[in-house]
Fold this sequence. Notes:
The protein has 134 residues and is α+β, with helices and mostly antiparallel strands. 31% of the residues lie in helices and 22% in strands. Keywords: Plasmid.
Amino acid sequence: xxxxxxxxxxxxxxxxxxxxQLLQSLREQLQAVDPMFGVDWSASPQEQAPDEPVGFxxxxxxxxxxxxxxxxxxxxxxxxxEKNTVILRNEGQAVELTEGLxxxxxxxGIQLMLPGEPGQTPTQFPLPPESDGx
Length: 134
């Protein structure tokens, strides 16, 4: 069994209520897949450093099987909440997700935060199967 990857999820909000909505939305989305997921999530507003805006930050222990629901949750939220940015950070890497990105770009951004094969840098990830009920 693979160890979860600890991700820092930072939200640069247009409105301070919106990060709380994203946190609740992601919690519901991921708990639908794994009922125990997210039980101990905590989130808190962070002071904004002049050289590195942080906004609202929470930590997330992400298992590879939850990458697709996380991507769907962030993508859906960004399409509704314009002017917001979600930044994922892990071990010196960062991916910035903004409105206008398609689902494949959001999914690939999350996949980049997950560990690949030892000694390999992931370059391309398969897209998840379409879930439109075909």
